[in-house]
Hints:
- The protein is mainly α.
- Helices cover 83% and strands 0% of the residues.
- It contains twelve helices and no strands.
- The chain has helices spanning 5-20, 24-57, 64-77, 81-96, 101-124, 128-154, 169-242, 246-280, 286-299, 303-318, 323-345, 351-379.
- Helix 9 (286-299) runs parallel beside helix 12.
- The longest helix is centred in the middle third of the chain and has 74 residues, at 169-242.
- The radius of gyration is 21 Å and the shape is globular.
- The two termini are 37 Å apart.
- The relative contact order is 0.11.
Amino acid sequence: NSIAQLTKTSAEVCVSQSLGSRDTPLAIKYARHCTTWALIVGTLLALLYLTCGSPIIGVYHLDSDVHQKALQYLHIVLLGLPLYFLTLAMSGIYNARGQSLTPFKVNSLGLLLNMGLDPLLIFVCHLGIIGAALATLISQGAVCALLYHRLQRHDKILDGASILTTTEREPSKRIFTIGMPVVLLNSLFVFINVFMGRIASEQGGAIGVAVLTTGGQLEAVTWSACQGFCTALATFVGHNYAARHFTRIWHGYKTTISITLSIGLLGSILFYFAGTPFFALIVPDPATYIVGGQYLRITSFSQLFMMTEITTQGLFYGIGRSAPPAIISISGNILRLPLALLMIHAGWGLNAVWWAISLSSICKGIAAIGALFLLKKRLTGKSLAFQ
């Protein structure tokens, strides 16, 4: 998913800016390059995981039977990895056109299909972990096919051209220039999260890993909502940046940040005052949801800062500058490991992991605001007027 952001983010930026400058043929060229590179990179990654899957899963030090089941799951879902990459690239193209409702509907249908196939294949057909993998594979294939049909037949976004094209140097270079920082920050976050999981396992055993995993998914309620507005802002900024409507960009950012901060405030209130019962809705084990409540209470302090970081990312992405938010995110995520180890040494136990996550998010939010004002100072009166 992290690597797939290469073509998704590049599509959102390159296509939106091309449309903003009223250059439809260039927008189609970028769209086709993004879908082509999505299939290429997705296929290469599938081959990499096929050959290196076992040592990657081995980082978790799982029991041998669990390790083998993880490999079974991985090998099946790898078949759909290129299609998943293509789906995200096509979603980015729709987002760049301001038509995010289409991929939302299609992906929602895929999610419902997955939810229905899981119990059917796992329990009714008695396929176990293989059934779970097949449910994922089938739903991803269906989403890709349906979105492809909408893009090519219904909406005709590529004006009859194929999604595959002979790659050219300049469009490819720009796609990788914009997308690679996003890939690096997301991929590094994954690896850091893996090692944070190991630390949580050392401090809290299976409960520590369960809380880190489930807590992150619950926290994604606010994160995902903000990410949606970040995508919308990037598209909005891309259109107006290319059209040189600079005043609208600043108004768009202020409107978006007010919305995302409201989401963050609601999340903070929910996590702080109702973290334990909220966690208990997902994990009914008392020992786990009590620790999970502590996780959510601690992360409640960072919600507003997390919203600030993600929203500011959207502004930078829209003007084609993905490196500054990547540097901020990578630095803040790396900070989590020494912070956790330092607080564990001070005797904080498992809570050290939660505080390391929360404090690093606070630091990233503050740094994002600093980068925003630095951008405003440098670009006012030049290529981007913020006055």
